[in-house]
Amino acid sequence: MTATVTRLDEDDWERLAEVRLRALRSDPEAFASSLAREELFREQHWRMRLRSSPWWVATVEGGPPVGLACLIEEPGSPGTDRHLVALWVDPAVRNRGVGTALLAAAEGAALDVGAETLSLWVREDNAAALRLYDALGFAPTGERHPVPGREGLVELRYARALTPESTATA
Predict the structure, then answer these.
(1) Euclidean distance between the first and the last CA atom of the chain, given in angstroms as a whole number
(2) DSSP classification of residue 10
(3) What is the pTM of this model?
(4) N or C, where is the chain less crowded by C-beta within 10 Å?
(5) Chain-centre distance for alpha carbon 104
């Protein structure tokens, strides 16, 4: 199975909203936001998200979107770091290269702006995500913090150095 990854532009706001809300319905525990919060977003909020950061969707064989990812400059991080957020893959197509394809798109964009590292936060109990990040050369930085509103759960910061040769591959 080959995933096709497309960068969204501001006029794709409805597509972003549909996939993001589906991700929050499918895996609410994986995100810092909530379905109830984002269901209240209006067109201008979705457009603002697309203006402020690059977002990608993944499709398989021309079907509906089955994955999503976003790249940001995380406040407090070095200017040479880009941070991956909102990575989601539909459970029906997990472990088939969709996450890898989305990460490759984000890494390419990070390299294009001169980033030297790609980082992310992942819950320590998200075994599938940890396997993906480990397989793609991400390593824990030692930074960790409690998941807000989820007593006893912890997020770990992972990062990897970026070079043109390091881009994620299937």
Answers:
(1) 10
(2) G
(3) 0.92
(4) N
(5) 11
